[in-house]
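seq/struct pair 1
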Amino acid sequence: MESSAGISNSKNTGNIYRYIYQNGPCSRHEIAQALSLSQPTVTNALSRLRAENMIREDVSEESTGGRKPMLIRVIPDVRYAIGIDITKNHVSIVLTDLDLSLVCSKRIRMPFEENETYFSFLKDLIETAVRESGISPESLLGVGISLPVLIEENQKTIYYAKEITTSPDLYTRLSPFIPYPCLFFNDANSGGLAESWRGNASRPMLYLSLSNSVGGATIWQDQKLVSGDNMRGSEFGHMTLFPNGRPCYCGKRGCMNAYCNASLLSDFTGGSLEEFFQKVQSGENKGFRDYFYNEYLSYLALTVNNLRLCYDYDIILGGYVGAHMDFCIDRFRSMVLDLNPFETDGSFIRVCHYRTEASAVGAAIYYINDFVEKQ
């Protein structure tokens, strides 16, 4: 039976590691003050973490006139996680360390099919990523798989799928092909989680995923995802924008998804969103510009204003479209403010950090976070 002193030491070590991970690099004095611990307690915990190769100490580059302090930081390459984002026609894979630095990242055209050929393809993709990255398989925490579906709380059972055709027991069929722990995650939630971690967000925020389907995520303070009672919170794409409006793939009419999904733009250029935005920015095609500014962005502004009024949180524009909106963000902010009765500053609307693979990174974060929380 572990003694109370042993339990206390283990708890302090875990708290110190989590503090360094979230706030580092930092000094011993800073850790002791922040966690209300004595210097000897901090020193003993750091010795244990250093012996386990979890942290390192570096001399600070800043000079205060005396001896330069030692700054402590986590060693990011002691553990890794893989994130896979499955869409209707593509698969993206990322392998990331504890700092979310991408060791490898690939996007491959591969139409989704629920069969052994597809499952074997994913297995080979994972094994190739591990082999080519040169990491030890024992250092891989797990594989998070992002999909455009709704998933029960066990992160295994699919209970709603329209964007791709799959069965509720996909996990049962797929997981034997993956030689690591694995779980499923909603794609928009994963994208939002990646954005909150990338920006080190300490305040609540909304993530609006503007891809071939529209979704979203609500991130509470301290980067916690708000899933709702039925694991379908933040399904912004299925808010009714116009009663009895355009048909949506969900079977209803007037959903925001039917007015703001990315394919509405990429269909103009044979599926290439990059080409569409290039022609909008260059002014090469007046019809494209008129549609984007006068129709697409007007619907998006209506949505963003409604979300701001409902939640009063910052809003991140993500997904395929959000990744291209730097060039027009000031104009878009003005469009939203024209609808808003309270505000004159549109800086609460921001373009995503991750221009690609946000959902894959977000799916990997589960295993990173789990590792850090269990120290």
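seq/struct pair 2
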Amino acid sequence: MATAHNEANLGDIAKTVIMSGDPLRVKKIADNYLENVKLVNKIRNIYAYTGTYKGKEITIMAHGMGMPSAGIYVYELYKFYGVEKIIRLGSCGTYVDNINLLDIILVDKSYTESNYAYTLNNEHVQVASSSENLNRIVEKIAKRENINIVKGNVCTTDCFDWYMTDLNKFLDRIPKELNIVAAEMESFAIFYIANLLKKEAACILTVVDSHYKKQELSAEERQNSIDKMTILALESII
């Protein structure tokens, strides 16, 4: 069945989906890594492609920026399309001195100041966990492929942290016991929905800027920085 946001029919979308914010990043992954590719959604240019990777059916789909956008697509995939597992590939900024540009982070838990869970489900929840099962698989594949990853907790923000009027005040509010290493804008919603609907979700991030070191990648460098984590996600799925 199609939804207001997804024109794919039942059966067009695989049980496992790799998602990323940028539709062009999704197209690049589909073009470079999948065989027998079919475009199954293009509403609002939120592309979804279904094909095979080493014989395994998989869908690659965009989710846009921010929890409201990602939450719509993730909820519909789980609820209406029978998707069981989602792995998000994204970018993040780090706040700590021992993480560098282009490092890969496997997210354990996501913290947010948002009322996303309260609005969606009348529940005051600020921390959502990824799938332990999926994370174990990703860690196993990372070791096999000799890809260095950092497993840690991140903060999911409602706005781009570089535009905050006082980032230090925001950082001071984050619970210190969570040991937040980076920030991005979608994973809390993805994890929360997965847990709510008894599905699985993981998130793999590439570091594209560092507040600690005052460094950031260019837009082109961000676009081209996804190959390692793409291999990590694809190999984990099969």
